[in-house]
Amino acid sequence: MADIAMTPPSAGQKELGVRTASYIAATRRKQMYSGILLLIFVLMMMSGFRIAEERNAGDFLPGLRQFFSFPSEVVSEGWANRANIPGYVAQFFPSLVETVNIAAVSTLIGALAAALVGLLASRGLARWPRLIPVFRRLLDAMRAIPEIVIALLLIYILGGGPVPAMIAIAFHTTGALGKMFSEVAENADQKPVEGLTSVGATWGQKMWLGVIPQVAPDWLSYVLQRFEVNVRASAILGFVGSGGIGYDLKIAMQWGGGKYDQVVAIFLMLFLTIVVIDQLSSRYRQKLVKGS
Predict the structure, then answer these.
(1) Spatial contact of 288 and 232, defined as CB atoms under 8 Å apart
(2) Quick one: CA torsion of 40, 43, 49, 54, rounded to 10 degrees?
(3) Tens of pLDDT along 31-66?
(4) Which strand (E) or helix (H) includes residue 48?
(5) Between 1.25.40.340, 1.20.1250.20, 1.10.3720.10, 3.40.630.30, what CATH number should domain 72-291 receive?
């Protein structure tokens, strides 16, 4: 027994010990770096809060006591005039349809543009491989510019209405979906593309017959998810004069007290619309991805 106890560790045990010590050291380093980053983030938040508080027109902390004053006023007036809400729902329903139409058309246009640009930005599939960085930066730029900035610029040029909102949302949708489409396409099986290349197929034929059938379920899933986002974006852009139910909401809120029952009706319509779209898109996304 003494001989067994005094037996020196084998090479495998030494290697295991070295690996364990290395893993523990790496874990501690990671924890230390995470702690430092968290501390930096907290300090930046505190510094930013102090600057914002100094430049704030009113006091932020004292104003927190009044945070729920406006919502409670809106809800109480809406409840007191709840009998008028069905009539307002009928009144604002065409505007809601306009908002959904803006989101649907912009999603369709953005998805078609994203499919083309996304394929041109995909490694191993691009028509012009040297231009892949150009198309990727283009998608980055389209994602970086908020819809409201584009809409404000287009409203200045084209005037108010649904067209600026549609173009703005489609522009941003192209950048957002193009990146996801490209990532999915890069993971597609290359064998069908190679087979089509061997028989002399054009680039468009290779994409249409060899790539798109593979990526279509994931692409459609992303499109449905983006449609939900675009409905909300379309409603928000109504505040800057792009039409739809967002514009009616802006007018109702500008009138102040006495019109808050309209605000409640519009919020209820938006909420129910988002819930319905979310449920339908989630259901169809599951069918597309899982095939069930």
Answers:
(1) no
(2) -130
(3) 888 889 889 988 888 777 777 666 665 566 666 677
(4) helix 11-55
(5) 1.10.3720.10
Could you give the CA distance from residue 238 to residue 245 in angstroms, rounded to a whole number? 7
- What tokens were used for 133? 């960085």
- From residue 79, how far is each of 4, 84, 256, 258 by CA, in Å? 84, 10, 16, 12
Residue 131 confidence (pLDDT): 92
Query: What parts of the chain have a pLDDT lower than 50?
Result: 1-2
Q: What is the pLDDT of residue 10?
A: 65
Taking the model in full, what pTM does it have?
0.75
Instruction: Report CA torsion sign: 143, 162, 235, 65.
Output: positive
SS3 call for 254? helix
Handedness of CA 9, 10, 13, 17 (dihedral sign): positive
* Residue 170 neighbours by CB under 8 Å, 6+ apart: 105, 106, 107, 109, 110, 113
Two structure tokens written together for 10: 């084998």
